[in-house]
Amino acid sequence: MTKGRGDQGDAPAPENPTTPPLDPKVDYELAKDELPGWFGYVEWEDYPEKKKAAHEILISHEFPPPPEFQLEPIPGTNPVLEGVRWKEWHRASQIPIIDPNSWFLRLEGLVKEPKKLTLADLQDESKFPRMERLVTIQCSGTRRIEQISLYAGEGDEMINAPWAEGAIGTARYVGISLKKVIKYCGGLVDGAKHLELVGADTYFKMSEVMNYAISVPYSKVQANEVMLVWEMNGEPLPKIHGAPVRAVVLGYIGARSVKWLYRITAIPEPTKAPVQSREYLYFNQQVGKHNQRWTDGIQIQEMPVSSAIMAPWNKQVVIHEGKISVKGWAYSGGGRWPERVEVSADGGFSWYMVPVENLSPKHKFAWRTWHTELPCDVEGWIELVVRCWDNSLSKSLWFMMACLYIIDTQPTEVRNAWNWGLHVTSSAHRVRIYSVNKSKERTRARLEEFEKRGTSFVPITRPTEFPFMTWEEYDEFFAKAGPRDIEV
Ligand SMILES: Nc1nc2c(c(=O)[nH]1)N[C@H]1C(S)=C(S)[C@@H](COP(=O)(O)O)O[C@H]1N2
Ligand SMILES: [Mo]
Question: Pro residues bias: where (predicted)?
Fold first, then answer.
């Protein structure tokens, strides 16, 4: 199956310590590594007959049903996140480990001069100027767990990705603009309007195997908003983030930032690869698991404005002096940025603005982290909420006159944004905490009492075995205030 590409060197594949033992029932020849130095890269798109053979194997194999975790708690042994179903099939479902010296990029399709470029070519500053950007990559499934926990979704897409507030990250990337690479290839042939970006990993969808692929409009490339990067936060791009080279598509959802990139194909229409054509769609509430068509969903490219509280945690007991320290992130897609963040300690009835000096600096394609001291007088359970406005507010004031509530900030409830695919959870993020306000004299005394006794204050669900006041204090109170019950 190996198609020779003679000039690519023959460095031995690095050892992968997590390779599962060979399974005698599996056809390893079928999913053999395509190239020396490219461990875990199986080429599927060039070999339709090989894809078909893999499909035959997959449909004849009986996979265990995914463990239930949406209507029930995640099992203690957590087989959910490991992706046991696909790993059962083949090690091709692991990430590729590609020797940077063996790596090369194929530029194909409707480019005037198709080329193969090595990493050294991309890094040659006489060919391509360097580009460095602070970029937030956000998965459109960020905070999906809030939709799942209220309204369970479809197993197939959610099983490996029950993301909370952490499916977003910001890093400084170094690389080049894809625009310059296309120019180096003589530009595009007339009629080419999109670029398909393909990754070396194996992707599974409905018992089909394929290389991970998406497409971006050429206009996005021309705006210098598609980077090819090899450095992240001053280090070579880590394996898990797509080494040696990945795409970073500024302002688009994470799914477009293809990792382990090896092929770019100029095409006339958006790709029909499933990640672009059948997934990452935002459905309306008249369509669900059993009547949706791929054409019913809006393609998710730019995330709307959203935010999250990163501290304190849900169910945390927070001891404070009348103000709770809250921190988190705020982000908006498409090159928009957070302008204002507001936090509530009462479930979203009253809101306090985060002082602007407590927001990290503005960047066109990055989040702003924030922190604030939120006044709170309540003892016991409260609901912290965050919402954010982005800069499209200032751009579209005329529109705001017409529909005050729907633009530029976030819907208040998870249900407002619920959709069958469980994407784009952009509702105001809510965290329930237990407030203990030690600026109150008695609360402070009580905490000291716990300390004196060497008793732990948490968990708050534990009964406390010591009294709140003495009988002398009790009698003194009612002597002053009058009796509890009035006798006629
Ligand atoms: N080749 C390849 N690239 C990929 C993916 C993938 O499965 N394969 N996942 C995408 C998705 S859905 C997201 S959210 C981001 C995550 O990037 P990270 O792993 O660097 O956080 O990578 C994207 N690029
Ligand atoms: Mo994602």
Answer: 14-23
Q: Which atom of ligand 1 is nearest to the CA of 280?
A: 12
Taking CA atoms only, the protein residue closest to ligand 1 atom 23 is: 255
Phi, psi of 126 (to 5 degrees): -75, -20
Is 123 in contact with 175 (CB distance < 8 Å)?
A: no
Q: Which of 173, 245, 259 to mutate to test the pocket of ligand 1 (most atoms within 8 A of CB)?
A: 259
Q: What is the pLDDT of residue 407?
A: 52
| Every domain of the chain and the residues it spans | 24-299, 306-435
Residue 43 pLDDT more than 70?
yes
CA distances from 2 to 19, 92, 114, 182 (A): 21, 15, 22, 28
pTM over 0.85: yes
Please give the distance, rounded to the nearest whole angstrom, from the Cα atom of residue 257 to the centre of ligand 1: 6
Model confidence over 169-182: pLDDT tens digits? 999 999 999 999 99
| The domain defined by 306-435 carries CATH number 2.60.40.650 | yes
Residue 149 confidence (pLDDT): 84
- Under CATH, which number does the domain 24-299 receive? 3.90.420.10
- ω into 312 cis (within 30 of 0): yes
pLDDT (0 to 100) of residue 69: 75
